[in-house]
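Worked example 4.2. Below are the chains of a multi-component assembly; read each line carefully before continuing.
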Amino acid sequence: MRFSECHDLAIHGLCCLAAQPKGRLLAAKDMAKALGAKLSYLAKILQILAHAGLVEAKRGKAGGYGLSRPASEITLSDILGAVNGGPRIYPCPGTRRCSKSKPCAIRAAFDGADRSMTRELGRVTLSRVVADLRAGGKTGNTPWLQATLVQAGA
Amino acid sequence: MRFSECHDLAIHGLCCLAAQPKGRLLAAKDMAKALGAKLSYLAKILQILAHAGLVEAKRGKAGGYGLSRPASEITLSDILGAVNGGPRIYPCPGTRRCSKSKPCAIRAAFDGADRSMTRELGRVTLSRVVADLRAGGKTGNTPWLQATLVQAGA
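Applying the procedure described above to all two chains together yields the following structure tokens:
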């Protein structure tokens, strides 16, 4: 699995949505501002997350983004899977004529590590992360999350 | 942890060294040829691995690289740790003013996944990978490994 700004924004963005009061939508521009992200880039990520069934958008003046299912039913593994089209930590370049259908021993070892990581991240729900972020937020650890709550008037 | 060509070459390079008959050194240029890698890039990786105490170099005409400890005492986790200066799958960009000393809940969750992956890869020794590669090699799965054995005259 390769972690990039894309994964990072997807996770942080979903935390922002999960932290909103029930039923309140968040505009992409407010989210982008809070996360210090480029709006056009964040919009693409939100599109990927919508396609994966994690967020839904409502258009119009009172529109914005919200989670499409409860935060307690979304795990970190779901998020990475949505961004990657399935988690994989070892992107075998295949330049050494390894067989794609029959993974070599190196790839097999990393597939095992993948499964172990996926299991671990599959145990962590978005609701738990947000609860922990809020608890840590008292020490000023998560200004980005607070910012979306202020912007949404929560 | 970010996987790159650097990690990939480090793992494949060490497999080549582990596959050599006892005491036989492998020249960097032969390894680079077998792995389809640029010699200057591979040389830098070998330097990192030497610094981490995984390989040692002998200069001169009969020189080359060899493992500095038995392949049964080197794990995939050791290799990634050597390349990364310690494994970490979630490189928090820190652009959101998260505290470095006190990881946020997102980072903490990924640190847990890191530990799980490291544990898994720490169980896989280089000698096991090479034995598995050789078993798979009968189906033509690892031409790069065979190439280093031919070049070394093994």
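Take a moment to check your reading of the output against the notes. The radius of gyration of chain A is 17 Å. DSSP finds seven helices and two strands in chain A.
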